[in-house]
């Protein structure tokens, strides 16, 4: 049995989810002769010690002690502002790093991190979990196989049932960077094409404090790809029907919808149509439970050299470039050309 020890930094909501998924990996890894161990640290030491104890994981009081303990990979699930320094620490330790998106608060802050990783030949996987969702994987397979023909329209939707705390939104960078960046990433990944221009609008009809901290609760972006294909990306913090994540792909030969299952957060207005019949997903963690598990399994495989990096830091920054352009368009009211790597966005004509 080969032991692989993951060190986790950060045990907030998503950190606890990752911790549980890491421990559960042994259900699928043991038959492959792999035993996954977990060590945890957090500045909230008492909370981290409790989480570690509940999962049979090791608690270490500091990042330095975690890195010195001989871990095989570092998992970062802390606030965005801490990502650059933690990524660099993992790279300096000579171990693969998994970091929740994004690399940094914005593209300019991400650029030196990319340079740091490249200069030291580091391995960093960024957490865009939709790349592991069964529906998105099938859509990519069908498109790549030519079953849809050429794409004429893409419509991506990401809607939370209820907004996160306003305190979080105040430091999130805006709805496009926090929420729609997942859609921007999956559109690039699925099509293999770059988004070159964004035109965004937004509104605030919910909690006025969201507007007071500089964000919107509902937004729509029209995106243009480098081959002229058009798409829309919509997001909202107030989708009372449930957590709604979908992607509609319309092609010259056929169409597919990701997220149209028995727990879809919508209902038909047509007579005698009972679909979907189950209760809707309530949160992103529930909607993408399987994807998050597969994502962490992929990180272990990356550590073992069994696969290539499924989402590089460069991939993540490319999606963040689109999010930055969308945020600028929202603020300026005009279309914005997506910047070249790390450069300021340019306002379109």
Brief overview:
By secondary structure, the protein is of the alpha/beta class. Helix content is 38%, strand content 23%.
Low-confidence stretches: 340-349
CATH architecture of the largest domain: 2-Layer Sandwich
The residue-averaged pLDDT reads 94
CATH homologous superfamily (4th level) name of the largest domain: Dihydrodipicolinate Reductase, domain 2
| Tally of DSSP β-strands | 14
Structure characterization notes:
- It contains 13 helices and 14 strands.
- It is α/β, with parallel strands linked by helices and 349 residues long.
- It folds into 2 domains: 149 residues, NAD(P)-binding Rossmann-like Domain (Rossmann fold), CATH 3.40.50.720; 172 residues, Dihydrodipicolinate Reductase, domain 2.
- The strands form 2 sheets. It has an 8-stranded mixed beta sheet. The protein has a 6-stranded parallel beta sheet with strand order 3-2-1-4-5-6, sandwiched between helices.
- Helix 6 runs antiparallel to helix 13.
- The C terminus is likely disordered.
What descriptors fit this protein?
single chain; 349 residues; alpha/beta; Rossmann fold; Dihydrodipicolinate Reductase, domain 2; 2 domains; 8-stranded mixed beta sheet; 13 helices; 14 strands
Which helices and strands occur, and which strands form pairs?
Layout: E1 2-9, H1 13-24, H2 26-29, E2 34-41, H3 45-55, E3 58-59, H4 63-68, E4 73-76, H5 83-92, E5 97-100, H6 107-119, E6 124-127, H7 134-144, E7 151-159, H8 166-169, H9 175-191, E8 195-203, H10 208-212, E9 218-225, E10 230-236, E11 244-251, E12 255-258, H11 284-287, H12 289-303, H13 313-332, E13 336-337, E14 346-347
Parallel strand pairs: 1-2, 1-4, 2-3, 4-5, 5-6, 7-10
Antiparallel strand pairs: 7-11, 8-9, 8-13, 9-10, 11-12, 13-14
């Amino acid at each position: 049995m080969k032991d692989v020890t993951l060190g986790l930094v950060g045990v907030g909501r998503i950190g606890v989810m990752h911790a549980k998924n890491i421990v559960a990996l042994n259900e699928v890894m043991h038959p492959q002769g792999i035993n996954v161990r977990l060590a945890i640290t957090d500045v909230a030491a008492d909370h981290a010690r409790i989480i570690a104890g509940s999962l049979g994981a090791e608690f270490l009081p500091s990042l330095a002690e975690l890195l010195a303990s001989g871990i095989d990979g570092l998992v970062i699930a802390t606030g965005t502002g801490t990502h650059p320094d933690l990524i660099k620490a993992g790279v300096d330790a000579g171990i693969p790093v998994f970091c929740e998106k994004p690399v940094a608060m914005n593209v300019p802050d991400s650029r030196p991190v990319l340079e740091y990783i490249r200069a030291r030949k580091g391995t960093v996987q960024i957490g865009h979990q939709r790349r592991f969702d069964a529906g998105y994987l099938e859509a990519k397979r069908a498109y790549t196989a030519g079953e849809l023909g050429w794409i004429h329209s893409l419509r991506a939707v990401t809607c939370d049932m209820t907004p996160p705390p306003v305190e979080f939104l105040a430091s999130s960078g805006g709805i496009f960077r926090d929420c729609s960046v997942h859609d921007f990433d999956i559109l690039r990944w699925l099509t293999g094409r770059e988004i070159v221009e964004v035109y965004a609008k937004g509104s605030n009809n919910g909690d006025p404090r969201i507007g007071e901290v500089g964000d919107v609760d509902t937004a729509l972006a029209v995106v243009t790809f480098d081959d002229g294909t058009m798409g829309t990306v919509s997001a909202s913090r107030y989708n009372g029907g449930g957590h709604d994540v979908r992607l509609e792909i319309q092609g010259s030969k056929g169409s597919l919808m990701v997220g149209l299952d028995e727990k879809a957060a919508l209902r038909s207005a047509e007579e005698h149509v009972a679909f979907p019949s189950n209760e809707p997903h309530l949160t992103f963690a529930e909607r993408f439970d399987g994807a998050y598990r597969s994502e962490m399994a992929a990180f272990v495989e990356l550590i073992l050299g069994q696969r290539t990096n499924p989402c590089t830091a460069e991939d993540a920054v490319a999606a963040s470039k689109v999010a930055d352009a969308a945020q600028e368009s929202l603020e300026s009211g005009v279309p914005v050309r997506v910047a070249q790597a790390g450069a300021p966005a340019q306002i379109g004509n």
